[in-house]
Amino acid sequence: APPAPPSAVRQVKLDKECELRVEVSPDAPLRLRLLNGTAEIFGTEIPPQIWLNFPPRFKFAVRRFPSWTVFTWYGATIEMDGTTETDYTADETPMISYVNVHAVLDARRNRAKASPSDSDLSQGPRVIVVGPTDSGKSTLSRMLLSWAAKQGWKPTFVDLDIGQGTITIPGCIAATPIELPIDPVEGVPLDMPLVYFHGHATPRYLILHRKTFCTWSLLVAYPLYLLVPTFIHSQVASLGLWAIFSVLYVFTPSYVVHFSANVDLYKVLVKELAQILERQFAGNVESRAAGMVINTMGWTEGVGYELLLHAIDTFNASVVLVLGQEKLWSMLKDVLKNKGNVDVVKLQKSGGVVSRNAKVRQKSRAYKIREYFYGLSNDLSPHSNIVNFSDLCIYRVGGGPPAPRSALPIGAEPATDPTRLTPVYINRDLLHLVLAVSYAKEPEEIISSNVAGFIWITDINLESKKITYLAPSAGSLPGKYLIMGSLTWYEP
Ligand code: ADP
């Protein structure tokens, strides 16, 4: 660990049931250790005396969890070394109510374990955490999973948040078994996640092709231009218009995000994931009894609310934890009361939860993609590969507006069915896109197949018809079919 000036070392004494909230500094690392007592970070106990290193926030770490909390049930002394953006202790936390939920879940797991042969009773709790963005859903999911793992359960973590998920890169829904308390620094282990690729960081995306966008802007701009009094209609003015148009064209990302919905695809993928897990549970008494913890998107209104109901239904959730939104809680309680056996529980949001603005969220998405290729601390070495256009079969899955005609085979009609597949012809617009490598053996299987991993397009040579991409490892891809969405990444 880097040596820090001695003045930066300080001790914090925490009383029982209090927490130390730390927001990591943007550019300086922080380390911290437990001197005495016991304490945990997001549900994972920290080992005594060992320094834990937190990288600075903006180095290559615009992290999913830029702020931390060290909570103690019985009292502890913490030593910190380095600078922080802010740090303070809080004695008002909702932790007691969270751990009470855990106790109830634990009892249900034990009950499930006691009757392994009964198909209904052997099912452990299926918990779904819902609430608005930045209400602490991911944090609560993490704590519940870590507490369960500490007691020897192997619960399944399902993350349905395609914008700010914690299992894999954005644009995906995923599931993974949690066998050990989640490491406070490293996060969820990524051994064998089951991943489905949606391709967009929100189901609300619609992709508008750059050329379409610019043509439309021009169509709008021209009548406005005509309204300008004639004496300004000099060459300067028309040059100005063209200059603005050119700037717009060059600086508009090749895919502009617009408002619409690719909700149907999202639902289809949620269903696929639920079915696979159901099958896995059928053959595994242990994970069946441990149940699952499902994290959701922060979209709770309108179609977002519909998607929550869809997820509750599809996964057969038995416990719905509602964070920080009274209205959502009463709506869900009302709707689900006829369903029987679904507990809808209202929980308080922690005062420590930090809201992240759109820019921070965008950065954390980019960071997550960087982490996929380069590792948490630059410890992975991805490979750059060059292949012929004809070696890759790229498909776009319905949704959003149809693919630009220029990207389609001649005569093909742009897709409108949300799950219809359209082959994509390679052109410069694919540059910087992140594509998923499907396990599908046939194009028809793409929707229902999970993905093996991702590649990032770094160069397209139209003359030699070669495409250069970055992949986690060298060698051929684990599948022939690639899925394209609107997920792009620009290496910082
Ligand atoms: P959501 O999943 O609902 O969007 P998160 O669980 O990601 O919300 O919480 C938002 C942010 O708040 C996270 O980045 C996390 O670092 C921070 N956070 C959550 N709980 C605490 C806490 N008790 N103390 C300090 N920071 C916290």
From TrEMBL:
- Main subcellular localisation: nucleus
- Per the database record, which ranges form the Clp1 C-terminal domain? 380-491
Annotated ranges, domain Clp1 N-terminal: 13-112
User: Where, per UniProt, does this protein localize?
Assistant: Nucleus
What residue stretches are annotated with the Clp1 P-loop domain?
Answer: 131-204, 259-375
Q: Which GO terms describe its cellular component?
A: nucleus
Residue stretches spanning the membrane: 213-233, 239-257
Per the similarity annotation, which family is this? Belongs to the Clp1 family. Clp1 subfamily.
User: What is the name of the protein in this document?
Assistant: Protein CLP1 homolog
